[in-house]
Amino acid sequence: MIIRVRLAAAACALGAALTACGAPAAPPAARPAPSATSAVPSRPPTLAPGPAGLTPVFKNGSRAHGKTVALTFDADMTADQGARAASGERFDNPRLIATLRALKVPATVFMTGRWAEQYPVQARSIGRDPLFEVANHSYSHYAFTGDCYGLPTVSEDRMRADVERAYTAFRRAGVPDAMPYFRFPGGCYDHQALRTLSATGVTAVQWDVVSGDAFATDAGAVAQQVLEGVLPGSVVVMHCTRSAAPATERAVRTIVPELRARGFRFVKVSQLIGS
Ligand SMILES: [Zn+2]
Fold first, then answer.
1. SS3 state of residue 143
2. 138 alpha carbon to ligand 1 midpoint, in Å?
3. What are the DSSP calls for 28-46, one per residue?
4. pLDDT mean by block of 10 residues, the chain; 275 residues
5. 75 CA distance to ligand 1 centroid (A)?
6. Domains in the chain, ordered, with CATH?
């Protein structure tokens, strides 16, 4: 299991390309009309800063507040993969997004800024659909520590700018309300990275369930790994890219009805953090 986890994480980082979730641009779903109790938009919930003001790290929700689970999809694309995209490699996965919509599964998409630039129509469609929330997975998908599965590294003095550049890319694509949540590329971080990002106000979001979908071709194995790992409050990490995670959409079609049959309810990361 540990080996599988490491392999999956390594595949994510090495592939660096795990791209993302795009969805065919279905007409953006309308946001619900504000009700009397929700007329004032509230700021997304975040965790309080850690000791000495460090960026807080969220891994999973409470185990004692009911059977909720958050599926998260990383929309990876490294800053230097434009040529591969230009030659036809697909870093998006419209079918996955369509399936989540058809099954009415709320989800959090950790998007790189580079992906939003490559697929602005899809980024906007995801970002404007109340079923989803867009969070930050860096601009470049470079690592924020050394020795992170072979990923190139962002220098310390560029870390904040890399995060902010992703938010700028989201806005330019038409994503209105990206969340103040950040997932480190490869999941790699250290004390210095947490200190450096503290001024951005983000909550770092890790996970407690690795799906193993990176470069997997056996959707049944991915589904099994998720179903074996999920607990109340879990955060599941998956990917949204045809080229580097080709089995994910099929795995989701197994995972969703099975977890619902077990009494689980799907929520976004913000709902886990807020509870
Ligand atoms: Zn990633």
1. strand
2. 9
3. PPPPPPP-TTSSSPPPPP-
4. 39 41 43 44 88 96 96 94 92 97 98 98 98 98 95 96 98 97 98 97 98 96 98 98 94 98 98 95
5. 7
6. 2-21+55-274 (3.20.20.370)
